[in-house]
Amino acid sequence: MPKTILLFGTLSKAHVDTFTRKDGSVVQAHDTKVQAKPKLDAKHVPFVEDQLSNNEDASDEELHAHFVKEGLHPEVAKQALKHRDAFASSMKTPDHIKKMAGL
């Protein structure tokens, strides 16, 4: 059975599998797939906008947990919370949150 060594580089978006054949030769397979950065789905825009504008009682941690429970990726929830103060201080339009979400 070939020996497999998995190496992760410092840029961790790619990895190299090294396979040693029975004859001793080494073969490398590069996997350079870059995972897409999670984005806010259009279906969640009204929900996120409402929560950022009106949910004054929940802490950031509670609101983050609420976002994740409703289906947002944890990183998207974290990014949305960075805009909480702006939403609390003034009414933002749906176009603003779509722009924020990269839609």
Q: Termini separation (Å)?
A: 48 Å
Strand content: 15-25%
Average pLDDT number: 75
Q: Briefly note the structural class of the backbone.
A: alpha+beta
The number of distinct β-strands equals: 3
Strand order in space, largest sheet: 1-2-3
Helix content: 40-55%
Uncertain residue ranges: 1-13
Shape by Cα distribution: elongated
Radius of gyration: 21 Å
State the domain count: 2
Pattern of helices and strands: EEEHHHHH
Number of helical elements:
5
Largest sheet: 3 strands, antiparallel
What would your notes on this structure say?
The protein has two domains: 1-35; 42-101, no CATH class. Helices cover 41% and strands 17% of the residues. The protein is built from five helices and three strands. Strand 1 and strand 2 form a beta hairpin. Helix 1 (45-54) crosses helix 5. The longest helix is centred in the middle third of the chain and has 10 residues, at 45-54. The N and C termini lie far apart (48 Å).
